[in-house]
C-alpha cells in the first residue's frame, strides 16, 4: 500500500470565511512531515478577478450598488461578465461551471490536479462545499482518505438537494466528518449517519459551520482524529 505523503486542502467556496482553526491543524500536520497543497479552482479565481474588474471599472453596476434599476444593472453586469469570459483563458472552465454547476466543475478541476499524483498518496481535508467536490471524486486512485469539516448536508433555507448527499453512500475511502454541534447545515449525528457509508466516522465539535474559535480541548480532539484517520496509511518523515 502506498503511504500518504501529501495533504490537499479543499476549502469552502466563501473564501472570506475560511477557518483559522482548520488552517492551524493543517500546519500542525505539515510540521509532522506531510507536504501541503492548497487547491485553488481556476474557475473561481477567474470569476473573482472578473468581479473585481467590474466593481473597479463599472461601479454603477457593482453588486454593492443598491440603487434604482436593479434589473437593468444585473443585465448589464451579466453582459460584461460574458464578454470577459469570452476573452478569458479559463473560459472552458466557466463553460463547464455554467452547464454543470460550480461544485461539479470544482470536482473536475480537483480530479485533474490529482491525476498527476501517485496512487493512494493523498489525504484530503475539506471544509463546507469543498467536501461535496472531494467526495464526488472519492474513487480517484490518488485519494487514500477524506476528512470533511462542516459538510453541508442541507442548506438551512432550502429543501434537500440531491447533489449534496446522493453520492455519499458510494464513498469507498476512509472518511471522517468533523461536524459542529451548532452547524445549521447538519448537526444531528443520528440523521447524518444514515446519509453516509457505513465505515464513515463522525466527530462532533463544539462549534458552528465555520469550525473556528475552537476551545483548546476541542482543537486538540479534532487534530487527534485527523491523525488517527491518516495513521495506518501515512508514514511520518519527521
Q: CATH first level of the largest domain: which class?
A: Alpha Beta
The secondary structure category is alpha/beta
Strand content: 5-15%
CATH superfamily of the largest domain: Alpha/Beta hydrolase fold, catalytic domain
Largest sheet: 6 strands, parallel
GO molecular function, one term: hydrolase activity
Keywords: Hydrolase
InterPro entries: AB_hydrolase_fold (IPR029058), KANL3/Tex30_Abhydrolase (IPR046879)
Protein name: Alpha/beta family hydrolase
Describe this structure in words.
The chain folds into two domains: 6-41 and 101-230, Rossmann fold, CATH 3.40.50; 43-100. The protein is globular and about 55 Å long. The longest helix has 17 residues, at 70-86. It has helices at residues 20-31, 42-57, 70-86, 91-100, 102-114, 129-136, 162-165, 189-193, 216-230, and strands spanning 6-10, 35-38, 122-127, 143-149, 175-180, 201-205. By secondary structure, the chain is of the alpha/beta class. Residues 233-238 have low confidence and may be disordered. A six-stranded parallel β-sheet has the order 2-1-3-4-5-6, sandwiched between helices. The two termini are 20 Å apart. GO terms for molecular function: hydrolase activity. InterPro entries: AB_hydrolase_fold (IPR029058), KANL3/Tex30_Abhydrolase (IPR046879). Pfam families: Abhydrolase_11. Residues 125-221 form the KANL3/Tex30 alpha/beta hydrolase-like domain. This is Alpha/beta family hydrolase.
Amino acid at each position: 500500500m502506498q503511504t500518504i505523503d501529501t495533504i490537499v486542502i479543499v476549502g469552502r467556496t466563501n473564501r472570506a470565511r475560511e477557518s483559522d482553526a482548520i488552517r492551524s491543524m493543517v500546519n500542525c500536520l505539515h510540521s509532522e512531515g506531510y507536504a501541503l497543497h492548497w487547491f485553488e479552482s481556476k474557475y473561481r479565481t477567474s470569476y473573482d478577478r472578473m468581479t473585481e474588474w467590474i466593481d473597479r471599472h463599472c461601479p454603477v453596476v457593482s453588486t454593492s450598488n443598491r440603487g434604482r434599476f436593479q434589473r437593468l444593472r444585473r443585465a448589464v453586469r451579466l453582459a460584461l461578465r460574458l464578454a470577459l469570459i469570452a476573452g478569458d483563458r479559463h473560459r472552458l472552465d466557466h463553460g463547464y461551471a455554467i452547464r454543470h454547476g460550480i461544485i461539479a466543475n470544482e470536482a473536475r478541476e480537483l480530479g485533474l490536479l490529482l491525476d498527476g499524483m501517485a496512487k493512494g498518496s493523498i489525504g484530503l481535508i475539506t471544509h463546507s462545499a469543498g467536501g461535496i467536490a472531494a467526495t464526488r471524486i472519492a474513487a480517484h486512485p490518488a485519494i487514500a482518505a477524506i476528512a470533511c469539516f462542516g459538510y453541508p448536508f442541507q442548506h438551512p433555507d432550502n429543501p434537500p438537494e440531491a447533489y449534496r448527499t446522493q453520492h455519499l453512500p458510494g464513498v469507498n475511502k476512509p472518511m471522517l466528518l468533523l461536524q459542529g454541534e451548532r452547524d445549521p447545515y447538519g448537526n444531528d449525528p443520528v440523521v447524518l449517519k444514515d446519509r453516509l457509508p457505513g465505515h464513515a466516522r463522525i466527530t462532533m465539535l463544539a462549534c458552528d459551520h465555520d469550525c473556528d474559535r475552537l476551545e483548546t480541548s476541542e482543537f486538540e480532539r479534532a487534530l487527534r482524529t485527523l491523525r488517527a484517520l491518516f495513521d495506518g496509511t501515512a508514514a511520518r518523515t519527521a
